[in-house]
Design a protein that fits this description.
Elements (H helix, E strand, L loop, with lengths): L3 E3 L2 E3 L4 E4 L2 E4 L5 H21 L8 H14 L2 H4 L9 H14 L5 E2 L6 E2 L4 H6 L5 H17 L5 H4 L25 H12 L13 H15 L12 H8 L3
Antiparallel strand pairs: 1-2, 3-4, 5-6
Helix pairs in contact: 1-2, 1-4, 2-4, 6-8, 6-9
Length: 246
């Protein structure tokens, strides 16, 4: 690749750079950002470990949302499109670790051994109304898509999505580049077209309850299956991809 010049100066080529709080790589893999986010979350968890014994139970969810979830939500519609459950695993592990620390969950004794295992967190997520990073991504993508549909989104986002003149469906771009398959431009129409057909949600399109209805649906899917063990069906975007045959 020939050198790129700006005002006579050669612009240095780098593998990744931080821009507006998001680490962008030359392959748009978002791996660097996810690792950095997980590291920041773990640092916050370390600080909370000393604070949580003094936190009353009524404030635990507030502490979690302030110190953990707020960081996860920042630009999640960008880096959350990393395309596989495994890539988001460092953030999900940090979420579960934070739940154990903030909600003061005891370790579990492994039967027949002298070992210990981390406490299950799925029930705390569900009873507290907290979503995994996978479902937070789906929720925020749908929220942005709904804003585009109602013309309440920023100009930049509104130009990324187009809707059919004859229905509520979003138009999926015709690009065939696999690396962009989970980009917001592709993921948002796919998720939107799924949710506008769901009973209890489709009647709220263009109205305020739409966001709450989608969040409730996501939480219900997250509760399915074993009350302690996470399963594929609990991560809604992955389930939708399977339904769509992607």
């Amino acid at each position: 690749m020939p050198p790129v010049r700006l005002a006579g100066e050669i612009i240095k080529c780098v593998s990744h750079i931080k821009f507006l709080g998001v680490i962008i790589t030359d392959t748009l893999s978002w791996d660097h950002h996810i690792k950095k986010l997980a590291s920041n979350l773990n640092r916050n968890i370390g600080s909370l470990r000393h604070l949580c014994p003094r936190i009353p139970p009524c404030l635990r969810k507030t502490i979690y949302c302030g110190f953990i979830q707020s960081h996860i939500l920042f630009a999640i519609t960008v880096w959350g499109s990393s395309g596989s459950q495994a890539k988001l695993l460092p953030v999900f592990r940090a979420q579960k670790k934070a739940i154990r620390v903030i909600f003061r969950l005891p370790r579990l004794c492994i039967p027949g051994t002298s070992g210990w295992a981390p406490a299950h967190t799925k029930s705390i997520f569900n009873t507290s109304g907290l979503l995994s990073v996978h479902n937070l991504y789906s929720l925020m993508v749908i929220r942005e898509a709904h804003s585009c549909f109602t013309s309440e989104s920023s100009l930049g986002s509104a130009q990324l999505l187009q809707f059919s003149d004859r229905s509520n469906r979003a138009i999926i771009p015709s690009g065939r580049i696999r690396s962009l398959g989970d980009n917001f431009v592709f993921a948002a129409p796919r998720l939107w077209n799924f949710f506008v057909k769901v009973e209890g949600i489709k009647d709220h399109i263009g109205k305020y309850p739409f966001y709450a209805a989608v969040r409730c649906w996501l939480l219900q899917r997250q509760m399915e299956g074993d009350p302690n063990e996470w399963s594929f069906e609990n991560f809604t975007e992955k389930m939708i991809n399977r339904i769509a045959g992607k």
